[in-house]
Amino acid sequence: MWKRKLCLAASDSFGMSTSDQIKAFAQIGFDGFFTDWQKDLPIGDYVRTAKETGMIYQSIHAPFGHSADLWNEDEVKGKLALDELLACLEDCKRWEIPIMVTHAFIGFEDHTPTQIGLERFGQLVKAAEGSGVKIAFENTEGEEYLFALMDEFEGNASVGFCWDSGHEMCYNHSQDLLARLGNRLIATHLNDNLGIRDYSGKITWIDDLHLLPFDGIADWDYNVERLIKCGYDDILTFELTTTSKPGRHENDLYAKMEPMEYLTEAYKRACRIAAKFESMKRMG
């Protein structure tokens, strides 16, 4: 896309290997991608495919299933969770991938950050310093943990913010996180959803739909305006899926599409947002 690089997250829902996804993204018009991380994944193969296709390996998404353990007083669980993130960071360093996106927390009941949690994340940040890799903390459920981390590492050049537009609507009750953290924004996860379904405002993981932009209730003029206001002028990265959450059917239509058809539609939606970005920048 002229003037605006566009990236897409690799996903198991797309029905092809990660390396084939990278090739497909490049063919369709995307400029880059990001992947998840697990021990023994062939990150080197993805790096080679990226070089062959001229794609940007924008970031790696760290595992998040044990994120709550980092805040737990249990030393064994805490160490295992930290060691997992450190191993992911080592792969980012080894393969020169500039951003590691990390969830601050997982869970819907606890809302109390702990000192031991800050200390464990401090070890991760210290390991990132001078490595060429930045830790981008992402907004998920439990924004109290995100705020605690961003306050703890205020001014640290190795720490930034990854804004997930969909998470803001369904996990953070649509509070304007860019107003608070936009000056530290280094990555985006752009996607759409239908907000919080429960009338009382209870948040659950099944509201996190990761729909194509413009298929949900997001106000993309508002989103783009806020990105511009906070001075973000980098890659626009999208995180999408064709898989519906349990008991829901919003993504079913995507699953019926051929992979290249769906990915092309994703690119068209991404281009609409990029064009909106450039138009609103010109308008000042």
Question: Topology, pairings included?
Answer:
Layout (H helix, E strand, L loop, with lengths): L5 E4 L8 H11 L3 E5 L6 H11 L2 E6 L13 H20 L4 E5 L11 H14 L5 E5 L4 H10 L6 E6 H6 L6 H5 L3 E5 L30 H10 L6 E3 L13 H4 L3 H25 L1
Parallel strand pairs: 1-2, 1-8, 2-3, 3-4, 4-5, 5-6, 6-7
How would you describe this structure to a colleague?
- The chain contains ten helices and eight strands.
- The protein has helices at residues 18-28, 43-53, 75-94, 115-128, 143-152, 165-170, 177-181, 220-229, 252-255, 259-283; strands at residues 6-9, 32-36, 56-61, 99-103, 134-138, 159-164, 185-189, 236-238.
- The chain has an eight-stranded parallel β-sheet with strand order 7-6-5-4-3-2-1-8.
- Strand 4 (99-103), helix 4 (115-128) and strand 5 form a beta-alpha-beta unit.
- Helix 3 runs parallel beside helix 4 (115-128).
- The longest helix is centred in the last third of the chain and has 25 residues, at 259-283.
- The two termini are 21 Å apart.
- The model has no long low-confidence stretch (mean pLDDT 97).
State the helical fraction: 40-55%
Please identify the structural class as seen in this structure. alpha/beta
Enumerate how many helices there are, as a single number.
10
Strands, total number: 8
Instruction: Report the mean per-residue pLDDT as an integer.
Output: 97
Which oligomerization state do the chains in this entry correspond to?
single chain
Strand order of the largest sheet: 7-6-5-4-3-2-1-8
Gap between N and C termini: 21 Å
CATH superfamily membership: Divalent-metal-dependent TIM barrel enzymes
In one word, what is the shape?
Answer: globular
CATH architecture: Alpha-Beta Barrel
Largest sheet: 8 strands, parallel
| Stretches with pLDDT under 50, minimum 5 residues | none
How large is the share of residues in beta strands? 5-15%
